[in-house]
Amino acid sequence: MAGDGVCAGAVHAVKEVWERRIQTLTEDLKREKEFKQKLVRIWEERVSLTRLKEKVTRENGRVILKIEQEEWKTLPSSLLKLNQLQEWQLHRTGLLKIPEFVGRFQNLLVLDLSRNTISEIPRGIGLLTRLQELILSYNKIKTVPKELGSCAGLEKLELAVNRDICELPQELSRLTKLTHLDLSMNSFTAVPPAVLSMPALEWLDLGSNQLQQLPDAIERMQSLHTLWLQRNEIACLPESISRLQSLGTLVLSNNRLQDIPACMGEMPGLRFVNFRDNPLRLDVTLPPAASAEEEGEQELFGLQFMRAYIQEARRQAGARLAPDAEGEEGRETNGSIDGSETHPSAGPAGSADPASPDLAPADPSSADPDG
């Protein structure tokens, strides 16, 4: 029995030794694998950095990273070594996300990542206080972070053709230098309140959304000179639109407008309009052009059309009022002589009561023969 105990103890000791050896070997293999992976990452980072350096150019005194139609689904952290970059221009690269470290590029003036597959804008974007242009059109962005409102130097923002953006945070109203905003081909059902509060905005595209009306507060956009609203569901225009003193271009084609408000004829700064493909209630045809040159300049549903439409609407309104005025005048005539009312008990004007001697008919023989 004692021999069996010694034998079991020896086996147990040998087992422990082997288990420790296996564990040590496993840990060594794991460390070796991690070391190799680290070396691979370092090598890949160096290769990526070398490739990125080859894409850096200088144009008009700016340092620009320019990549076109070359796959870069992610941007390596080694890009931080190129912190002197002033512009990123990456188009059709398949980029999936904007790296969070983008906020460390304090010299960045232009960030153009259009035509990729980016799904979100990182909050770190708000650290780019010198950024002047942010172009993220043709991506898959659904929401806009409030931190974007901290980009105090931003002058141009393009978020067109992201399809699913339906609102903007109110913090974007702090973009006091923004002059150009493209929100076309998204899912807005109303003009975002933040947009109405952008004091410097001059150019706005909200085409191909789902707008049903314009707010009365649109008159607050006094710097606006170009407004694109094509391909929406707008059924009527507020009178306040006529108070946009700087507006020169207004595109309203492919909407549901049934009328053109007369107040739009009082917009002296308006130079170009387009009402094409709207179910307008009046059928207005422009007079034939006097010359071929005039015909070439004549827009079928443009400014001349708008003025002719307003004029025709006023003419028809006046024609409708005329019969009503005649009817009212007739009613007044039936109830008065020379504008004075007749007492209800009196007979018709010019008649005499035969029972009254004071009103007996005069003797015909006393009448003047010369009449």
Quick overview:
The chain has helices at residues 2-54, 193-196, 292-297, 303-334, and strands at residues 56-59, 62-68, 87-91, 110-112, 133-135, 156-158, 180-182, 203-205, 226-228, 249-251, 272-274, 336-337, 340-341.
Main attributes?
371 residues, Leucine-rich repeat, LRR (right-handed beta-alpha superhelix), eleven-stranded mixed sheet, two-stranded antiparallel ribbon, elongated, disordered C terminus
Question: What's the layout of helices and strands?
Answer:
Elements: H1 2-54, E1 56-59, E2 62-68, E3 87-91, E4 110-112, E5 133-135, E6 156-158, E7 180-182, H2 193-196, E8 203-205, E9 226-228, E10 249-251, E11 272-274, H3 292-297, H4 303-334, E12 336-337, E13 340-341
Parallel strand pairs: 2-3, 3-4, 4-5, 5-6, 6-7, 7-8, 8-9, 9-10, 10-11
Antiparallel strand pairs: 1-2, 12-13
Radius of gyration, taken over Cα atoms and rounded to an integer in Å:
40 Å
- Supply the CATH superfamily name of the domain at 56-158 and 168-179: Ribonuclease Inhibitor
CATH overall fold name of the domain at 56-158 and 168-179: Leucine-rich repeat, LRR (right-handed beta-alpha superhelix)
User: What would the average pLDDT be, to the nearest integer?
Assistant: 84
Protein name: Leucine-rich repeat-containing protein 39
Biased composition (Low complexity): 344-371
Pfam family, one: LRR_14
GO cellular component, one term: M band
